[in-house]
Backbone:
């Protein structure tokens, strides 16, 4: 049994202009010790997917359905009290926007210690010592001096690292990390990724990593989910997604990468605009922007179906496999040529 | 050995040509560290920016990279006059703006805009997005109500948002959508200089490409000037004409972007370049990073000599920890400067090669 099994998850928001379909039928699972990478377009529903699992959507405007089975218990129907118990101890989340989750009027050290004491019956002194240990581990200089500082006295990347420290304080079974290293330079990022790996080795924790950095995904993920317009466009093992991508959106994404080793005046971008989530496109949601669009794409929503001869690899696109294999090979050959 | 030393004196000064839009000289920003509850006593200071000089020409993009906490955002806020610099000067189009009052700054506000690193904290949570983007246009009375609305809708579209987003509140957006609201807001009044602090960090690579292409198009058509702070070295290379690398409040290297990436001179730059993740699961996992040892130093008590010395793979005892290196001309290219006693002889280098300063160059000389 998977540690977390998400099935047909949907979250809609009521707004003044209508209902926003933020997540529209997403399924995936994560096993103990595994790392799942979630990539996809900005606004495609990655963060809301995770906030829904954690029960953290605004109650007033959000409506959710589907199931999220955590060790056999459905998080979507769990009581608020039970969710509070699970959050921060069994499942921890690093939020995309550190300032929204750090309290601006409380000192960093107190916030970290509080996060620990909420779930474990330890003395203030023990909690403070653990907070210090973690601040050091995430590379905050002179950590003992900084426990008594407020969030605004930290740089963007330091706040992000405080968040990371807070999420690790109770050695969670599942860590959901939403863009945890966007504000970090590459050497600090490497340090944080190593820290997360250590958590996995030591405690067998699972990790869901949402990131736009395809390099990070390639380096740490076991499985990858590619999201587009609130749905899963493609998912599979990391090698399957990077070496044999099967969805035109994934191709567009990989083709847009700026690279250290290539010189171009303009970057390739996927044509057209990101879709409206009030009135998502009919049929395949990518069809208005897809260079391969066929008549059927405008009518029929392609189901997430297995790729033949590639067990575990699922995709949702009407193109025939021959075309897909050819185009994927072309894309990869192009990327290789650029790199040499 | 005589030649580089002569050059040294000249290169530490900024070489100005007269067409610079922005000139920053010896900028410092110290934050007081206070202790005590009722009587706050200043016990030390955080030297967030500690003597930074550079110039940006009109129509140019200066990329800025550096370790988290090294003072990039603080520098940006000083340039925008959102923070009062402790010392140094900032000149915009030849005029010293360092000491200008709020009122005196007003005419410059339209010409200098900033995209903030923390999009959520910089957007008023109680205002709808249409209002937020229109605000500067309204303040400077740039157009009728209808014209302003049209302009805002157009701006939302060019940054890849939908007309349906016009009436929403900031908390109803995804992280990357919020970041693009910040971009639209900065572009609204047609500024001359935009200080971009991590403007694309929350965007997927395709939307990121859309924004980077937009910034480049605007630069080509309207001669915009950018200071572009980012951690993504691929993005910085793509967008920048020149790149400045910062370490612990100071400049450690500057160069034209090609020179910096092909021939980094400072060991910190080398370590950064070696740590860029590679989007290939087979190559990426076996890549050799240059790991920086030791604790990250504090800007309250920066290390003696070269500030990088406690973590530097090339560190030479008795020299690097005693004498502060000057930011001087290094390497063949014009305008390539580095602040290091033992600059890299070539690139790429392994960690072992890095640890033996001088060896590679001696070998090359005898050959
Ligand atoms: N509270 C809300 N009310 C209305 N719409 C919302 C709300 N929160 C999110 N949305 C919308 O739901 C969609 C999914 O948002 P989400 O934050 O999950 O995107 P994301 O994939 O995490 O994007 P990013 O990469 O930019 O962070 C977006 O179109 C967003 O505008
Ligand atoms: N208001 C403040 N009071 C005290 N110290 C501060 C304040 N603002 C920033 N600092 C400190 O100044 C240093 C530089 O911070 P800054 O935000 O400029 O870094 P940065 O280079 O932008 O980092 P990042 O890449 O993480 O955003 C940090 O050590 C930070 O803790
Ligand atoms: S001066 Fe010495 S310590 Fe500093 S970067 Fe150069 S080699 Fe390293
Ligand atoms: Mg998000
Ligand atoms: Mg910053």
Residues:
């Amino acid at each position: 049994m998977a540690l977390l099994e998400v099935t047909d998850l949907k979250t809609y928001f009521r707004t003044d202009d209508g209902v926003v379909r933020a997540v529209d039928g997403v399924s995936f699972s994560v096993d103990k010790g595994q790392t799942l990478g979630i990539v996809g377009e900005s606004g495609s529903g990655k963060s809301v997917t995770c906030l829904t699992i954690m029960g953290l959507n605004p109650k007033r405007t959000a409506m959710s359905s589907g199931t999220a089975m955590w060790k056999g218990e459905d998080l979507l129907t769990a009581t608020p009290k039970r969710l509070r118990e699970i959050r921060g101890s069994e499942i921890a989340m690093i939020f995309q926007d550190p300032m929204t989750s750090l309290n601006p009027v409380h000192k960093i050290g107190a916030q970290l210690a509080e996060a620990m004491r909420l779930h474990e019956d330890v003395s203030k002194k023990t909690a403070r010592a653990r907070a210090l240990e973690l601040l050091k581990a995430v590379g905050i200089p002179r950590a003992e001096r900084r426990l008594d500082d407020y969030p605004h006295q930290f740089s963007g990347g330091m706040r992000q690292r405080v968040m990371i420290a807070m999420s690790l304080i109770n050695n969670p079974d599942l860590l959901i990390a939403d863009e945890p290293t966007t504000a970090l330079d590459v050497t600090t990022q490497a340090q944080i990724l190593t820290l997360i790996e250590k958590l996995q080795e030591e405690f067998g924790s699972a990790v869901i990593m949402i990131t736009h950095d395809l390099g990070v995904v390639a380096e740490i993920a076991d499985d990858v989910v590619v999201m587009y317009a609130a749905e899963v466009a493609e998912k599979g093992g990391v090698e399957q997604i990077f070496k044999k991508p099967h969805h035109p959106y994934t191709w567009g994404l990989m083709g847009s990468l700026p690279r250290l080793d290539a010189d171009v005046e303009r970057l390739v971008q996927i044509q057209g605009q990101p879709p409206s989530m009030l009135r998502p496109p009919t049929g395949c949601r990518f069809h208005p922007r897809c260079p391969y669009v066929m008549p059927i794409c405008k009518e029929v929503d392609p189901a997430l179906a297995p790729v033949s001869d590639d067990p575990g690899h699922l995709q949702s696109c009407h193109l025939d496999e021959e075309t897909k294999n050819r185009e994927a090979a072309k894309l990869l050959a192009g990327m290789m040529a650029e790199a040499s | 050995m005589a030649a580089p030393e002569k050059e040294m004196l000249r290169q530490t000064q900024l070489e100005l040509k007269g067409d610079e839009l922005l000139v920053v000289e010896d900028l410092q920003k110290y934050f007081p560290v206070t202790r005590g509850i009722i009587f706050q006593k200043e016990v030390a200071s955080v030297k967030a920016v500690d003597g930074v000089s550079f110039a940006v020409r009109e129509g140019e993009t200066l990329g800025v990279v550096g370790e988290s906490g090294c003072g990039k955002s603080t520098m940006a806020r000083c340039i925008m006059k959102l923070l009062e610099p402790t010392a140094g000067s900032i000149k915009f189009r030849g005029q010293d703006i360092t000491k200008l009052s709020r009122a005196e700054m007003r005419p410059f506000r339209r010409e200098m805009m900033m995209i903030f690193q923390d999009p959520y904290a910089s957007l008023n949570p109680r205002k709808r997005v249409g209002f937020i983007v229109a605000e500067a246009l309204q303040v400077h009375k740039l157009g009728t109500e209808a014209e302003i609305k049209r302009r805002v809708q157009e701006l939302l579209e060019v940054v890849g948002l939908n007309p349906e987003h016009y009436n929403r509140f900031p908390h109803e957006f995804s992280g990357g959508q919020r970041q693009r609201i910040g971009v639209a807001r900065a572009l609204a009044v047609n500024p001359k200089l935009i200080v971009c602090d991590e403007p694309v960090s929350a965007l997927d690579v395709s939307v990121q490409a859309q924004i980077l292409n937009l910034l480049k198009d605007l630069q080509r058509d309207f001669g915009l000037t950018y200071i572009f702070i980012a951690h993504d070295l691929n993005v910085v290379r793509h967008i920048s004409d020149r790149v400045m690398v910062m370490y612990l409040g100071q400049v450690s290297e500057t160069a034209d972007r090609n020179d910096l990436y092909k021939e980094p001179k400072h060991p910190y730059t080398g370590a950064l370049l070696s740590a860029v993740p590679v989007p290939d699961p087979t190559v990426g996992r076996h890549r050799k990073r240059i790991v920086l040892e030791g604790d990250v130093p504090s800007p309250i008590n920066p290390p003696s000599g070269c500030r990088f010395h406690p973590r530097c793979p090339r560190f030479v005892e008795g020299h690097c920890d005693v004498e502060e290196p000057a930011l001087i001309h290094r390497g063949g290219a014009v305008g390539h400067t580095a602040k290091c006693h033992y600059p890299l002889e070539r690139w790429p280098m392994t960690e072992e090669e890095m640890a033996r300063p001088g060896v590679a160059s001696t070998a090359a000389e005898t050959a």
Chain B has one domain: 3-33+45-111+191-366. The longest strand of chain B covers residues 41-57. Chain B touches chain A through 73 residues (CB under 8 Å). Residues A 46-47, 96, 178; B 174-175 surround magnesium ion (ligand 4) (CB under 6 Å).
